[in-house]
Write a structure and sequence with these properties.
With 667 residues, this protein is α+β, with helices and mostly antiparallel strands. It folds into two domains: 196 residues, Beta-galactosidase, Chain A, domain 5 (Distorted Sandwich); 431 residues, Glycosyltransferase (Alpha/alpha barrel), CATH 1.50.10.10. The protein is 26% helix and 25% strand. It contains twelve helices and 34 strands. Strands 6-7-8-9-16-13-12-11 form an eight-stranded antiparallel beta sheet. A five-stranded antiparallel beta sheet has the order 2-5-10-15-14, with no helix packed on it.
């Protein structure tokens, strides 16, 4: 994957036209079929693997007439790049010349990615000979495949290219294919794949604006530092490197300002700017620099509602299913509340003051929206933020996002002398008092937080992973953690509940407790493990001093990552872990997924316990004393836009090895 280009195939490397197989570019399937035959037979596939997020290698052996014994004398290597290039190299170890009749069968439907992912591909198109390859045409768009060297024979009606290769002893021969899109001069027809129009309204599609076409070879740079982890548990090193590689494959440019970079949500459902996923990924990668956060915030600021009215200051976002106990939630509400918090935290990590000041007006508009939706008559009881409708419901995670936005937003306003900070802090204090009264449900087992309040104020008591937001606080001045909506005793009780096998599957945190009504281990909001929420709970509990529960969740995610080849999906089944088991994939999960990859980085970097406050010139290091993965060293981090390195011993002691000049170690 190197968005907006990607390739999907089975481990054999053969593109058969089935399922998601194909080369894709700009949300369109350029090639759905690319089958290699030698002397009328498929090579015997012996290996297929990713060599990087944007590259794959496939190896197969070929049986030839006259071979003696079981050892193959001929093999073929296919090196495939996401941009539509494939190099097919035939190797001969035979002691005699070998003749190889080679055929490549090609085809496409030029279908949109969303349609293919939803199981609604288009009809196969008829090809015509075009230069040294073939061409297929659809409304306003054409797929072209060129071959080097030129085929000896081309049969357009069957999509067939043929060569008659002669390999001397020990020789090799390479055929190169290049697949690409051509648009009519008027531009591509219809709405882009990641912008649902009337013709595709029934197809589950992303939720974002169009992608910027990327010229071949123009991969955006990584908008983060070259971070590296060395750890006693070497799996952590592999997970860190692989997750950053996956994130690089998801990096995209903003159409309105190509210098601004963000990460797409994930393949196949969100191959464009998904506001909430982009903000969470940028926030979790702040220890690797602030460039991604700045680009993401600027891109979202351009989408913000600027017209006067009830939605002024709100960032648009679609509805999202919330499971069996609640109506869909609105990702736009979450993105609007995340925006000022991410900006404030980016400033603490070293976002330059000029960049912060440039984004401050957009953050102020978000905070104005927050104040408006919590005021009577439209605001919820107790100043709660409704989600999604003006009349509720009032979700616990939405109140946690609002509380953090108010506190960190006030800190931001104070830093630049803007009005409104005192009012935001007063609202946060009032929200905290009311939340501990209205949302905490006492029972004989110690109590639990309600998942939400209904429109008429009734609490819904099921235990879900959305309570992760109650453990996610944030940084205030001086590297101090902002107070949360729960007090210390309530956090302790929540830690016990989340560490119980009903919630901790052994591979991570279930979306809904196994003993709750409506539990489904494959329910993406009713029982499946979501990596993002597991990471938030693990890091939040560690910061609150509940290290053993945090360690269990951290190790569970690492064990799951090993089963998934260190490319974590956004979610997987919440079945209970057994001694000989493995986590079960969710069929609708994005993989790679931006938030899952960023969460893996977040949960590993959090083991250093970094709390920077660059404007105050300090950084504190508070690693968990349990050192769940043993000794570790993080190099190539970025604090104050300068390299930062820290080493953690097996006893949980931290030592800063590299830091910016003038940065002092805080308490």
């Amino acid at each position: 994957m190197a968005l907006p280009a990607l390739a999907v195939s089975p481990a054999s490397g053969q593109l058969t036209g089935q399922g998601m197989d194909g080369f894709y570019r700009d949300g369109r399937r350029v090639l759905s079929r690319c089958e290699l035959l030698v002397a009328g037979e498929e090579p015997l596939a012996v290996q297929g693997r990713l060599t990087g997020t944007a590259r794959a290698r496939f190896v197969g052996t070929i049986r030839a007439t006259g071979e003696r014994g079981p050892d193959p004398e001929l093999h073929v290597e296919r090196l495939r790049s996401a941009d539509g290039t494939e190099r097919i190299t035939f190797h001969s170890s035979a002691a005699r010349p070998v003749r190889l009749p080679v055929e490549i069968r090609l085809g496409t439907d030029l279908a949109k990615l969303g349609s293919v992912a939803a199981g609604l591909p288009g009809p196969a198109l008829r090809a015509v000979v075009h230069g040294s390859g073939l061409r297929w045409s659809g409304p306003g768009v054409h797929a072209v495949v060129t071959a080097t060297p030129r085929p000896a024979d081309m049969l357009a009606s069957a999509g067939l290219l043929r060569w008659d290769l002669h390999l001397p002893p020990g020789a090799r021969h390479t055929i190169e294919l290049r697949a690409g899109l051509e648009h009519d001069k008027a531009g591509p027809g219809g709405a882009p794949d990641n912008h649902r129009g009337p013709a595709t309204a029934r197809i589950p599609g992303p939720r974002t604006g169009p992608a910027v076409p990327r010229p071949r070879g123009d991969r955006p740079p990584r908008p983060w530092s070259a971070a590296r982890l060395e750890c006693d548990d070497h799996r952590a090193e592999t997970l860190m490197a692989g997750s950053l590689d996956d994130l690089h494959g998801l990096v995209m440019r903003d159409p309105a300002a190509p210098a601004d970079l963000y990460v797409a949500g994930g393949f196949p459902w969100r191959c464009g700017l998904a506001p909430v996923e982009a903000l969470w990924a940028a926030r979790m990668l702040l220890p690797l620099g602030t460039r991604l956060a700045a680009g993401t915030l600027r891109a979202l600021a351009r989408t913000q509602q600027a017209a006067p009215g009830p939605d002024f200051g709100r960032i648009p976002g679609p509805l999202r299913d919330a499971g069996p106990h609640a109506p869909p939630s609105c990702t736009g509400v979450e993105a609007t509340l995340l925006f000022p918090a991410v900006l404030a935290e980016a400033r603490r990590w070293g976002l330059p003051e000029r960049e912060t000041e440039r984004l401050l007006p957009a953050a102020e508009r978000c905070l104005r929206w927050l104040r408006r939706v919590t005021e009577p008559p439209g605001g919820g009881p107790g100043g709660y933020v409704p989600d999604p409708a003006p009349g509720g419901p009032y979700r616990c995670e939405t109140q946690a996002h609002a509380h953090r936005a108010a506190l960190l937003g006030a800190d931001l306003l104070d830093a630049f002398g803007a009005p409104g900070a005192a009012e935001l802090r007063d609202r946060a204090d009032d929200l905290r008092t009311r939340f501990r009264r209205d949302f905490w449900l006492e029972d004989g087992a110690g109590g639990r937080p309600a998942a939400l309040l209904t429109a008429d104020g009734r609490p819904v008591p099921h235990l879900a992973s959305t309570t992760a937001a109650l453990l996610d606080t944030g940084l205030l001045s001086g590297g101090v953690l902002a107070p949360g909506l729960l007090d210390a005793a309530q956090i302790g009780q929540l830690a016990r509940l989340l560490g119980n096998p009903a919630m901790d599957s052994g591979w991570g945190l279930r979306g809904l407790g196994a003993k709750e009504s409506g539990y489904n281990p494959f329910g993406h909001r009713s029982g499946a493990v979501r990596v993002h929420e597991t990471a938030i709970v693990a890091t939040g509990l560690a910061a609150a001093g509940h290290e053993r529960t945090a360690d269990s969740l951290t190790r569970g995610v690492l064990d799951a990552a090993e089963s998934f080849g260190y490319r974590l999906p956004e979610m997987y089944a919440g079945e209970q872990r057994t001694a000989d088991g493995a986590p079960v994939p969710h069929p609708a999960a994005c993989r790679p997924a931006a938030v899952a990859a960023a969460s893996a980085v977040h949960i590993l970097v959090a083991l250093a316990g970094l709390r920077p406050d660059v404007p105050a010139g300090t950084v504190s290091v508070r690693p968990p004393g349990t050192a769940p993965l043993g000794a570790l060293q993080l190099t190539g981090l970025s604090v104050a836009e300068e390299p930062f390195a820290v080493r953690i011993s097996r006893l949980g002691m931290g030592v800063v090895e590299t830091a910016a000049d003038g940065l002092q170690l805080g308490r």
